[in-house]
Amino acid sequence: MRVSNKQAAENRGALLQAANRLFRKRGIDGIGVAEIAKEFQAEFSARSRDLARRAESAPAEVRALDERIARLRARLKAGDMQAGKVQVLDVRREPEWDAGHIEGATWWPLDNFRVSAPEIDHDAPIAVHCKGGYRSLIASSLLQRAGFRDVVNVVGGFDAWQEAKLPLASARPVESTT
To answer: Which of 76, 89, 128, 130 is catalytic?
Structure first.
């Protein structure tokens, strides 16, 4: 969301008025209110500039992420996964794997990382996924620390894979243990 200079000035003015009302209400009118208001305005201005910088850099980050996704899709469509050029690593738990997994994926639950990294090619690109993206983010970091070079966390995980209607090896419902 982009805020114009006019809107920012109006917001600063409204906040300063609110601060002045609060100071008067608390009975500290005339005791450094102007100095406090200036500090408040300076802090607000700095935070506004920081938010504006973050908002401007977000599209570049989104474009970079889109490009990584496009490269991964292109590799998958080109048959790289079947040819062993892209390794897909599933870090979900066993019942999740049994319920459905990506065709050609290697299963290595995140819990197994405590013992060792998976025995897969260090030099081939690796697409790491879990159900939604949190566990795979951790696994990706651990793989990079273990010396794997080309690691991609599949944002959205298995849920996104299913939504995109990409191929699955099995899709059996998870049985309840209760």
So the answer is: 130
